[in-house]
TrEMBL record:
InterPro entries: Rab4/Rab5_effector, START-like_dom_sf, Znf_FYVE, Znf_FYVE-rel, Znf_FYVE_PHD, Znf_RING/FYVE/PHD. The keyword Flavoprotein does not apply. Pfam families: FYVE. One of its GO terms (molecular function) is zinc ion binding. Residues 272-332 form the FYVE-type domain. Gene3D superfamilies: 3.30.530.20, Zinc/RING finger domain, C3HC4 (zinc finger). The lineage of its organism: Eukaryota, Sar, Stramenopiles, Oomycota, Saprolegniomycetes. The keyword Transcription does not apply. It comes from Aphanomyces stellatus. This is FYVE-type domain-containing protein. It comes from the Eukaryota. Keywords: Metal-binding, Zinc, Zinc-finger.
């Protein structure tokens, strides 16, 4: 997936379990969450309409490609735009991989050069309050060029996924990645791979006024090494972008086919009518906060804590039913095989005050990113008359 890389020391992965162990200290988790914040802010600054670099449209057919020659002023020099028909919640869900098996499935679809990969650490995982927020460390190895005698290459990548809704109801999701140095507890041993570096790269998805349609952008840094004429550099960039976008859309479609599968009983008996608070967010029901019953667990939730899901009901077939956020997450975990997110650990995290405080401190680190997107971010390509 890396459009540009630079070689350093050789390395190879240690034997890693399918579900990553929690090997990072609280201080290390806070450090990587801060790195996730800063790399996201850098990409947003480079593509924000109010402060973007001078981007130039160089390709405008099935998708658009913008370039900027002022690479030294920003972390990226290529920006591509396309559109797709999908629900942004489903797209964001597809981007989150919390286990090694799920990550390998994703990467095998995204790159034919992918050899192996692993989830090194899940720093922030989805919760009922933030069901699409994820920060994690990943390891990935790729084949070297067929014309090169060099060793195959590997990367350690920090990944941040989130979904944010602004005051006008527009939703923006993103998956942003960058190489990082990791502590010795996660470091891989010397061997067959050469450690290389992935510069900042990001995918942003956002809703439009047309129902069911999303815009997808891909922003990266492509090193043309300055020895290619403009037409040749643009051709190389077009080839890279087309391959990346096509395979990303293929992966999203593959995940949509494997959409959440709810098996519900034909009849669900709601809990006692005396319940006066949402079982997810624990806020009290009122005239403005209506009460609904989850058709899977039968507990009462508010309008902010349920979603309509397609469910198979015996003798009735498929129906669109209200399912609470907790049940949605549990089904997603089962589908991913997320051993690191077992229900016992989830319940322990919810009931532990210390765990809640630690989680909240990491969430607070990312609040500035969420605030920027919700209030002051306008993607420059979405404001252009040439936008897809």
């Amino acid at each position: 997936m890396s459009p540009q890389s630079s070689a350093s020391s050789p390395s190879t992965p240690a034997m890693l379990p399918a579900a990553p162990l929690d090997l990072l200290s609280d201080r290390e988790k806070e450090h990587f969450t801060n790195v996730a914040k800063h790399m996201t802010q850098a990409l947003l600054a480079a593509t924000n309409f109010t402060q973007a670099m001078p981007w130039k449209l160089v390709y405008d057919k099935q998708f658009q490609i913008y370039r900027t020659e002022l690479c030294g002023l920003g972390p990226c020099n290529v920006h591509a735009v396309t559109k797709l028909v999908a629900h942004i919640d489903e797209v964001t869900e597809a981007l989150i991989t919390t286990t090694t098996d799920a990550y390998k499935t994703m990467m095998s679809t995204l790159s034919s050069d992918f050899i192996d990969g692993a989830v090194l650490s899940n720093i922030l995982t989805p919760t009922p309050e933030n069901p699409f927020r994820y920060v994690g460390l990943k390891w990935a190895a790729f084949k070297s060029s067929t014309l090169s005698m060099a060793k195959d290459k590997d990367f350690v990548i920090l990944e941040y996924v989130d979904l944010i809704e602004d005051a006008h109801g527009q939703k923006t999701a993103f998956r942003i990645m960058q190489s990082v140095d990791v502590p010795a507890s996660l470091e891989t041993a010397p061997g067959r791979y050469t450690r290389e570096h992935v510069p900042l790269v990001g995918f942003i998805y956002y809703t439009t006024q047309k129902k069911g349609e999303l815009r997808m952008t891909y922003t990266c840094n492509v090193d043309t090494k300055g020895d290619l004429p403009t037409w040749a550099a643009n051709s190389a960039i077009q080839s890279h972008v087309e391959k990346c976008i096509t395979k990303t859309l293929k992966y999203i479609e593959f995940q949509r086919i494997r959409n959440d599968n709810f098996e519900l009983p034909q009849r669900v008996i709601p809990m006692s009518g005396e319940t006066d608070a949402c079982h997810v967010c624990e806020k009290k029901f009122s005239f403005y906060r209506h009460r609904y019953s989850c058709l899977k667990c039968a507990k009462y939730v508010c309008s902010n804590c349920y979603s309509l899901r397609t469910a198979a009901v015996p003798e009735l077939g498929e129906r669109k039913l209200k399912v609470c956020t907790v049940c949605v997450i549990q089904v997603r975990q089962a589908r991913r095989g997320s051993h690191d997110l077992k229900k016992e650990q989830f319940d322990a995290a919810v009931t532990s005050v210390a765990a809640q405080q630690k989680r909240q401190s990491l969430d607070d680190v990312l609040n500035s990113v969420r605030h920027l997107i919700a209030t002051d971010y306008k993607l420059f390509s979405s404001q252009s008359p040439n936008a897809a």
